[in-house]
Amino acid sequence: MWTARTLILMCLPAIVFFFIFAYIPMPGLYIAFIDYNYSAGIFKSAFVGLENFRFLVMSGDLWRLTFNTVAYNLAFILLGNCLQIFVAILLNELRSKWFKKVSQTLMFLPHFISAVLIGLIAYNILSYDYGTLNAFLTSMGAEPVKTYSNPFIWPYIIVLTFLWQSTGYGSIVYFAAIMGLDAEILEAAEIDGANAIQRIRHIVLPWLKPTFVILLLFSLGGVLRGNFGLFYNLVGANNTMLFKTTDIIETFVFRSLMNNFNFSMGSAVSLYQSIFGFMIVITANWLVRRLAPENSLF
Amino acid sequence: MYRFAKRIDRASLAVKACAYLFIGFFAICCLLPFILVLATSFTSEKAIMDHGFNLWPRVFSTFAYKIVFENPDIIVGSYVVTIAITLVGTAVGLFLIAMTGYALQRPDFEFRNKISFYIYFTTLFSGGLVPFYLLIAQYMHLKDNYLAVLLPGLMSPFLIIMMKSFTRSIPHAITESAKMDGAGDFTIFVRLILPMTTPALATIGLFIALAYWNEWYNSMLFLSSDVKYRPLQLFLYNVVTSADWIRNSAASANVAPRDVPLESMKMATAIVVTGPVILFYPMVQRYFIKGITVGAVKG
Question: What is the domain-level CATH number for residue A61?
Answer without folding.
Answer: 1.10.3720.10
